[in-house]
Amino acid sequence: MTLPRILLTGKNGQVGFELCRTLSPLGTITAVDVEDCDLTDPAAIERLVDEVRPDMIVNPAAYTAVDRAESEKEIAHAINATAPGILAAAAARRDALMVHFSTDYVFDGSGTAPYRESDPTNPVSAYGATKLAGEKAVQQSGARHLIFRLSWVYGTRGANFLLTMQRLANEREELNIVNDQIGSPTWCRTIAESVALILAQNQKAPITQNGIYHMSAASQTSWYDFAKSIFDLSPDKNKFKLKAVNPIPTSAYPTPAKRPAYSVLSNDSLTHTFGIRLPDWQTQLKQALEI
Ligand SMILES: NC(=O)c1ccc[n+]([C@@H]2O[C@H](COP(=O)([O-])OP(=O)(O)OC[C@H]3O[C@@H](n4cnc5c(N)ncnc54)[C@H](OP(=O)(O)O)[C@@H]3O)[C@@H](O)[C@H]2O)c1
After folding, report:
1. CATH code assigned at 82
2. How far apart are CA 210 and CA 223, in angstroms?
3. Which of 57, 118, 212, 240 has most Cβ atoms within 10 angstroms of its Cβ?
4. Would residue 235 count as lying in a domain?
5. 16 lines ligand 1 (CB under 6 A)
6. pTM score of the predicted model
7. Which protein residue has the closest C-alpha to ligand 1 atom 21?
8. Domain with 93 in it
9. Structural domain total, the chain
10. Has residue 2 got a pLDDT over 90?
11. pLDDT tens sequence across 217-259
C-alpha cells in the first residue's frame, strides 16, 4: 500500500503544530508555513501544490487575529477565503482530499441550544465572515472535502487564552474576565488526534462524507469559569501573584470585533459519522496542563 502525500499548511500554528505530529503515521508530510508559502500569494500556492503533488491537503493555516481582522479585512479574506478556495480547486484537479478548518464564529450567538451544522450562519465579525467565505469556497470547489468547525482553541504553545491567563496571573493581583460568552474550549492536541483518527479511516476506503462537521469539546463554559479552572489547575499556581478574579459582562470589556454570546457546537454529526467524540473541556484542560 502506498501511503498518501500530505500537504499541511500552518505548521507553526496551534492546530498545525499538533497535526504535524498526529498525521505523521498516515503518510509523507510536507509541512509549510508563511515562510515557505505566503497564502496571500495565489501563484505561490499553485507552485507549492505542483511541487508536492499531494493526495491530501490539510489547511489549518488562517488569519486568526479576530480583533485585527476588523481593520485588515482584505488580508484576512485573502488567507481565510481566497487561499482555501485555491487549495481546494487544486485538490479537485488532483482528486485529493481537502481538509479545512472553520470556526464557531460563523454563528451570531443568538442561539440557546448547541448549533448544528445545518443551522443558519450569520457572522458578527469580519473574521467570522472571512471564515464563512472560506467554507463556501471549499464547498464550491468540487473537491472531496471535510471542513471541521472548531471553537475556543487553546494549547500550551503559541498565542491563546490559556497562556494569556497564566501570564496575567503572574503579573497582576486582580483580573476581570467576561462571564456572558458561552462556548467550548478545545485543546489543539485533542483536535489533531481526532482529525488523525478520522483521516486514518480514509486510508482504508476514501471518505465520501463530504461536508462540514462540528468538532469541539463536549460541555460548555464561560471565559470566566474557564479562566478560574486554568488558575486552579496550573502546576505553578502557588507562584501566581493573582488574588482576585471578577466576572464581568462583555459590555465592560469592549473589543473591536463583536463575539457571539453563545457559540456551543453540537458534535452529534461527527460522532454519528466517524465514531469520534471529544472529551469534555475539563478533561482536556487537565490533560493539557499535565504535559
Ligand atoms: N484559535 C481559535 O480559537 C480558533 C477557534 C475556532 C476555529 N479556529 C480555526 O482553526 C484553525 C486553526 O487555528 P489555530 O488556532 O491553530 O491558528 P493559529 O495558531 O493562528 O495558526 C495559524 C497559522 O497560519 C499561519 N499563517 C497566517 N498567515 C499566513 C499566510 N499569509 N501564509 C501562510 N500561513 C499563514 C500562521 O503563521 P503566523 O503565526 O506566522 O502568522 C500560523 O502558523 C484555523 O482555521 C482557525 O480559523 C481557531
Report:
1. 3.40.50.720
2. 33
3. 57
4. no
5. yes
6. 0.97
7. 13
8. 5-158+186-218+265-279
9. 1
10. no
11. 999 999 999 999 999 999 999 999 999 999 999 999 999 999 9
